[in-house]
Automatic annotation (TrEMBL):
Protein name: TadE-like protein
Lineage: Bacteria, Pseudomonadati, Planctomycetota, Planctomycetia, Planctomycetales
Biological source species: Rubinisphaera italica
Sorted UniProt keywords: Membrane, Transmembrane, Transmembrane helix
TadE-like domain span: 17-59
Segments crossing the lipid bilayer: 20-38
């Protein structure tokens, strides 16, 4: 003979209350971790983009006949591909002559201005990346 095990309505309501409490405790922690992971991934992407922009700017500035404005624009073009805002790009030297040996481009990006998450885990910080390249020379024989 089989026994029917019936769950009473009282047992179900007690378990629902426990599930609600567990949910209320776990959800804030899960959301904080979820949104923080978005900002950490964005941080990594911004860091790589700043590094690439600095390199591309220095590469453009190292070509014979290039100007500092062209180097700065090349760096800005790289940042525009990812819609990064509030960049400060500096090219050293400010005027590139044929005798200039090295070109340095520095890219500074605000983390706060480029964060995706409203809670802004990455507030108040900056990413600075610099690239220095030796200029190319064309010699005439």
């Amino acid at each position: 003979m089989k026994k029917n095990h019936r769950i009473s309505d009282q047992n179900i309501s007690e378990r629902s209350g426990a599930a609600l409490v567990e949910f209320a405790i776990c959800v804030p922690v899960v959301f904080v971790l979820f949104f923080a992971s978005f900002d950490i991934c964005r941080f990594s992407m911004i860091t790589h983009a700043a590094e690439q922009a600095a390199f591309e700017g220095a590469r453009r500035g190292s070509i014979p006949g290039a100007t500092a404005a062209e180097a700065k624009q090349a760096a800005q073009d790289e940042l525009d591909k990812l819609s990064l805002k509030s960049a400060i790009i500096t090219v050293t030297p400010t005027t590139i002559y044929n005798s200039t040996e090295k070109v340095t481009v520095n890219v500074r990006l605000s983390l706060e201005a480029n964060s995706w998450v409203p809670t802004k885990v990455l507030t108040g910080g900056y990413i600075d990346r610099t690239s220095t390249l030796t200029r190319e020379y064309v010699t005439s024989d």
